[in-house]
Amino acid sequence: MDIEKKYNTGVVWQDFQHRQLMDLFFKVKEAKAKKTGDDVFKYSLAFLAMYVNHHFKLEEEYMEIYYFPDTDLHKKEHKDLIKKIKSFRKNYAEHDEQSINKLLITLNDWILNHILENDKKLGEYIISCEQKAK
Ligand SMILES: [Fe+2]
Ligand SMILES: [Fe+2]
Q1: Distance (Å) from CA 85 to ligand 2 centroid
Q2: Which residue, 25, 9, 11, is CA-closest to 116?
Q3: CATH homologous superfamily of domain 9-133?
Q4: What's the 56 CA to ligand 1 centre distance in angstroms?
Q5: In the list 9, 48, 98, 119, which could disulfide-bond 115, CB 3.0-4.6 Å?
Q6: What is the 56 CA–ligand 2 centroid distance (Å)?
Q7: 98-123 pLDDT, tens per residue?
Q8: What is the model's pLDDT at position 110?
Q9: How many C-alpha atoms does 51 have within 13 Å on its Cβ side?
Q10: Looking at per-residue confidence, does 60 or 92 come out higher?
C-alpha cells in the first residue's frame, strides 16, 4: 500500500524505514480484518524488536553528527517505544483481539505523533545540514 506523501521527511533512508513500519501497520490491520492474526502478530513483535533498535540507532547517530537541538526529547520518545514493545512481548505472547487492537493503536499513535511530528523535524534538520555542507 502506498503511503501519503505527508509522512515523507525527504531523507531517503528515513522514509524507506518509516514505510517499512507503515507496511507492518497495514499488514496487522489486514490480518485483523481477515482474522488471520496469529502468525502476523508474532511476526510483528519480532520485526518491531529488530526494527526499533536499528532505526532508532540510525536516527540518533544523525542527531549526534549534526547536533540536533531536540535530541533529548526525541531519544526519550524512542526509549519509551522500546519499553512499550518489550512489555508487549512479555504481556502478549499469544495473540487475541485485545492484543492486536493494542498493537494497532500503538503503531497508529507512533505514526501520527512521532513520525509526523518529531521525525519530520529531524528530517528537515538533516536536509538543511546536508545542504549547508555542500
Ligand atoms: Fe524518531
Ligand atoms: Fe523514525
Answers
A1: 15
A2: 9
A3: Hemerythrin-like (1.20.120.50)
A4: 6
A5: 119
A6: 7
A7: 889 999 999 999 999 999 999 999 99
A8: 96
A9: 19
A10: 60
Residue 86 Cα to ligand 2 middle (Å): 18
Spacing, Cα 113 to ligand 2 middle (Å): 11
Domain map (residue ranges) of the chain: 9-133
Please tell me the predicted confidence (pLDDT) of residue 1: 45
Q: Which ligand is nearest to the CA of 19?
A: 2
Report how far ligand 2's centroid is from the alpha carbon of 10 (Å). 12
Give just the sign of the alpha carbon dihedral 69, 72, 75, 80. negative
Asked whether 68 and 125 are in contact (CB, 8 A), the reply is yes
Q: Which residues hold their Cβ within 5 A of ligand 1, which is an ion?
A: 59, 119
d(CA 96, CA 37): 8
CA of 113 to the centre of ligand 1 (A): 10
Helices assigned H by DSSP within 35-96 = 37-65, 71-91
